[in-house]
Amino acid sequence: MEQEQLRRFERILLERAVPMGLIADSDRERIWERHVLDSVAAVSAFDPEDRDSVDLGSGAGLPGIALAIELPGVRFVLAEPRARRVGFLEYAVAELELENVSVHHGRAEALPHGAFDVATARAFAPPRRSWAAAEPLLRPAGRVVYFSGGPFDADLGADPPAIRELPVLDSSRRLVIMSRR
Fold first, then answer.
1. Domain CATH number, residue 74
2. Reduced to 3 states, what is the DSSP secondary structure of residue 119?
3. Which of 32, 43, 37 has its CA nearest to residue 166?
C-alpha cells in the first residue's frame, strides 16, 4: 500500500510540482530517487512512540508527505508560508487521502510551542536557523531531523544542540539529528 501511494505521490510531483517550479525541471527523471526515496530515508530517525511531527517549510511536501505515507501512526503538520505551495500541499494531501496530515499556511514559528516530537528540515534553512525555528516547537525529548547536503560542520551558536549523524542516504548526504542536551 505504501509503495503504491509513494508512486502516486511521485506522479503528483512530476505532473504538478515540476511545472509549478517546486521541483527543478532537471530533476524530472530522478524524482523517485532524489526526492521520494531521499525523504523516506528519515523513517529511521523516528521512534515508535513519536506521534506528532512538523515539516518546516514543506514546499512540495518533502519530506513530510512521503514520511506521512510511511508512518500512518504519526500526525504530520506541513508548515508552509507561501500560498501557492500551500495550494499544492492541500491538493496532494487530498489526492493521496492522507488523514494523518494537515497543512499550516504560515510560518512554523506560529505553531504551538512544545507540540511536536520531531521536526523535519529538508532544504529549509542552514542548521543554526533550522534549530532556532524548530527548538521551541519540540517537546522536551523532541528532535530535529536535518537533511544535510554533505559533511555537517555548522556553527550552532552558544548553546548548541546535541548532534547525531545517520549515514543512511547516499554517500554525499546524511541525516543529522539535533536534540536538546
1. 3.40.50.150
2. strand
3. 43
The answer to whether the pTM exceeds 0.90 is yes
Count of structural domains, the chain: 1
Q: Are strands 174-179 and 162-166 parallel, antiparallel or unpaired?
A: antiparallel
CB 37 within 8 A of CB 9: no
- Three-class SS of residue 148? strand
d(CA 66, CA 46): 13
Residue 105 is which amino acid? H
The whole-number mean pLDDT for each consecutive block of 10 residues of the chain, a chain of 181 residues, reads 93 97 95 94 95 97 98 98 97 98 96 97 89 96 90 71 76 84 82
- For 76, 147, 161, the CA distances from 118, given in Å and listed in that order, are 9, 13, 14
Distance between CA 25 and CA 50 in Å, rounded?
A: 35
Are the C-beta atoms of 50 and 56 separated by less than 8 Å? no
User: How far does the chain reach from its first CA to its final CA, in angstroms?
Assistant: 38
* Residue 84: domain span: 2-179
